[in-house]
Design the sequence.
């Protein structure tokens, strides 16, 4: 079996965003693991318009849909905007559905309370898209945010973040292998992917 592929999605696109830092940090940790391949996917590279038709069509939609289709799981790196996920992420998810089915979703949130409210809103969106969210998320709160922004620290200086990243990645790996095998077996038994 080829290594399953997980995409790490940077969910904000504004100039000067913080999102690159947690994405690069979790990518570096995750890439040290055997058996899974990770890649960073930046929503800046998929400039989708707001949904004006459903199912959506167009070149950008096809590129986005194709990217999701080829991967085996999602790791969302998300900010919290007004106690929810950034609109650009919700819009991107509204453009897809079968591409996400029966694949895992994991979360790195950042914000005043670790992006927890955004992540908790993102979980049911993922469930509606038939993804399996991991229980453990990584929450980068005010302490590390200020440490990185104002004191020149790095996210890897915070052991408690690394520890929750390890737990989250263990869960993500379990679900990724399990669901990939399940999807492949379903094709054998049912004749087509569900
Ligand atoms: C429109 C907007 C709304 C925000 N709302 C929240 C919020 O509800 N909770 C929070 O913790 N931070 C909030 N923030 C602060 C963000 O956590 C902080 O700006 C973070 O760096 C945003 O991620 P980004 O830099 O990747 O865009 C908000 C920021 C913006 C731009």
Sequence:
């Amino acid at each position: 079996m080829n290594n399953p592929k997980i995409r790490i999605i940077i969910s904000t696109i504004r100039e000067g965003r913080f999102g690159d830092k947690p994405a690069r940090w979790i990518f570096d940790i995750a890439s040290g693991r055997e058996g899974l391949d990770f890649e960073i996917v930046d929503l800046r590279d998929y400039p989708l318009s707001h949904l004006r038709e459903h199912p959506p069509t167009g070149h950008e939609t096809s590129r986005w849909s194709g990217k999701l289709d080829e991967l085996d799981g999602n790791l969302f790196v998300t900010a919290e905007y007004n106690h929810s996920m950034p609109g650009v992420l919700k819009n991107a998810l509204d453009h897809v559905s079968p591409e996400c089915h029966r694949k895992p979703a994991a979360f790195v949130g950042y914000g005043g309370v670790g992006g927890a409210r955004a992540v908790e809103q993102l979980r049911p969106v993922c469930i509606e898209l038939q993804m399996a969210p991991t229980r453990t998320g990584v929450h980068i709160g005010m302490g590390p945010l200020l440490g990185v922004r104002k004191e020149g620290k790095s996210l890897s200086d915070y052991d408690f973040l690394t520890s929750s990243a390890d737990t989250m990645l263990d869960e993500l790996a379990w679900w990724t292998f399990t669901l990939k095998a399940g999807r492949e077996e379903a094709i054998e038994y049912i004749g087509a992917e569900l």
